[in-house]
Design the sequence.
């Protein structure tokens, strides 16, 4: 590498390090290494459920009530509720617990699963109960 290219590379590397460090000073990191920001909303904005074939099992669009924290969704007849992969959209910078995107057992319909959306500032949260109904046999 020529001396000129090495100098340019060093300057770019130094600028990137400076930018990264100044960003970290403004916004601290949480225990998962994610930025803590000033965002206070803790809303679920969408829900998706995939079956074991990685295809959506939802019939229509789930209804998300942000005031009551209840999400109602209809899944296709014959869906294996014991192996679904949930994912959701949230407010900007929010996180969800327990973790979504993993195979989850939703088969106990008498005890709907709960997920908590935590705001970007990690000070506000909303807990959602996901209530599933199985579509009637066609």
Sequence:
């Amino acid at each position: 590498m020529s001396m000129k290219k090495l100098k340019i590379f060093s300057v770019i590397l130094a600028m990137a390090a400076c930018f990264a460090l100044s960003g970290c000073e403004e916004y601290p990191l949480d225990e998962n290494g994610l930025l803590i920001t000033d965002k206070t909303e803790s809303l679920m904005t969408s829900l998706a459920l995939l079956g074991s074939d990685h295809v959506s099992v939802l019939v229509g669009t789930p209804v998300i009530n942000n005031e009551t924290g209840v999400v109602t969704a209809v899944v296709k007849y014959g869906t294996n509720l014991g192996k679904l992969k949930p994912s959701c959209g949230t407010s900007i910078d929010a996180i969800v617990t327990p973790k979504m995107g993993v195979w989850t057992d939703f088969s106990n319909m008498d005890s709907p699963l709960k997920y908590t959306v935590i705001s970007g500032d990690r000070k506000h949260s909303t807990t959602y109960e996901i209530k599933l109904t199985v579509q009637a046999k066609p």
Notes: DSSP finds one helix and seven strands in the chain.
